[in-house]
Design goal:
By secondary structure, the chain is of the alpha/beta class. The protein contains 10 helices and 10 strands. Helices cover about 40% and strands about 15% of the residues. The termini are close together.
Length: about 290
């Protein structure tokens, strides 16, 4: 995008039997007119609350079009509405979620999942895995990789000098090995490596039962979390209605509201567009 052009933010409707079309329609009138908001794919006649193979196929076609538009630069960022993974899996969709789909379609191997709300931003070192598998999967190199991606994302979205905490894994950071040694073996080496690269940006290991409160109070701009629920429980407690899921590491941002299709309330006028509005705003900030 040149300085003389309007940024183009693409969007999908997700599974159109869900609340995606409603929250997109509700969000668009609230967005800055300094950008073009371009739909990906076609609107279909869907019955609210009744997902079908047709609604799943339309969702998949929109994802494919959005990924290609991102790859070729026809759009500068994309907001994707919620999908129904069960319906997509019946069509052969083999990805855990949209994060992995967009990364593969854009040929990106260095990516991560980040969730950000008005009070808290978190990136995940491990995602959808059993809790018992987390200690064995946690690696210093992975924490360093995700930390770098998170710092870049924060800069792209308006924080030139971010402050990032790496959360510990065990209660009280393991109490010097009494409750586990992952902090000394894995997290401290990761923090030290990141600090050598960017002094003053990275901090930790931070005690996990305090660090999310500290970040919400403004001591840190974001937290790298060792596993999914450690990060998402505080995020959804604080920012349930405005949290956004971003795939960090892509050359152009893919972002979505952090909620599901909500088939049970689709078409009833109950869907809250706050997360979708914030997703568009974040997409636009990343372009600017």
């Amino acid at each position: 995008m040149s300085r003389l052009q309007q940024p183009v933010i693409g969007y999908t409707l997700g599974d159109q039997a869900g609340i995606g079309p409603e929250v997109i329609a509700a969000a668009l009138p609230h967005l800055p007119q300094s950008a073009e908001y371009r739909p990906m794919g076609q609107r279909i006649n869907a019955i609210p609350g009744q997902p079908t193979e047709e609604t799943a196929r339309a969702a998949l076609e929109q994802l494919e079009q959005a990924a290609e538009a991102l790859r070729t630069g026809r759009i500068d960022a994309v907001v994707t509405a919620p999908i129904c993974k069960e319906g997509l899996h019946r069509l052969g969709f083999r990805y855990p979620g949209q994060t992995e789909f967009f990364a593969e379609r854009l040929g990106i191997k260095n990516f991560a999942m980040c969730l950000t709300g008005k009070r808290l931003t978190v990136a995940l070192a491990t995602t959808h895995v059993a809790l018992k598998d987390v200690p064995g999967m946690l690696q210093a190199s992975e924490l360093v990789r995700v930390g770098r991606l998170l710092a870049d994302f924060l800069r792209r979205t308006g924080i030139p000098t971010p402050r990032i905490a790496l959360a510990g894994l065990n209660p009280h950071n393991g109490e010097s090995g009494a409750f586990g040694d992952e902090e000394s073996r894995i997290i401290i080496p990761a923090v030290e490596a990141l600090q050598r690269e960017e002094p003053g940006v990275f901090h930790g290991p931070c005690v996990p039962d305090c660090v999310y409160r500290d970040a919400a109070e403004g001591l840190y701009d974001a937290v790298v979390a060792p596993y999914h629920d450690q990060a998402l429980i505080p995020l959804k407690l604080l920012d349930f209605d405005n949290a956004v899921n971003a795939t960090i590491g892509l050359p152009r941002l893919r972002v979505s509201p952090d909620h599901g299709t909500a088939f049970g309330i689709a078409g009833k006028g109950l869907a809250n567009p706050s997360s979708t509005i914030r997703a568009f705003e974040l997409a636009l900030r990343s372009v600017r």
